[in-house]
Design a protein that fits this description.
This protein has 132 residues and is an all-alpha fold. Helices cover 74% and strands 0% of the residues. It starts with a helix and ends in a 5-residue tail after the last helix.
Length: 132
Amino acid sequence: MNTERWAVRYARWALGAAFLSGIASRFGWWGANKGYGNFANFVRYTAEVNAFMPAFTIPFLAWAATVAELGLGIALITGFQPRWTALGSAVLLALFAIAMTISLGLRSPLDYSVFSASACALLLYSRETPKT
C-alpha cells in the first residue's frame, strides 16, 4: 500500500465531493434550509462575491461556476485527466478566493478554506504523473 497514492486519491475525492456538494446545495438537494437552498440564493451570493462585476454578468458567472464545478467534481472523483483537472481546480478555486477577498475581505476565503483547497489542487497537479 503506497501512502502517497492513497493521499492523492483522498485529495481528489475530497475536492471532487466538495465541488459536488456545492452543486447539491445550490439546487436544494441538501434541503431548502441547508446551504444556499436554491439557485436564486446562489445567484445572490455570486453577486456578493463578485460585487466588482457588472450586474448583467452575475447570472453567467453563477452558471459558469456551476458548470465548472460539476465537470471538475466528476473528473476529480473518476480520475479523468487528473493533472489537468487538478490544475483547473486550482485555478478556479484561486479565482474564487481572489473574488471573495476583493468583495468580502480576506477572512471569508480563509474561513471557507478556499486558499487551502486551491493549494491542495495545485499539489495534486504536481503529484499526478502525466500519462506517456
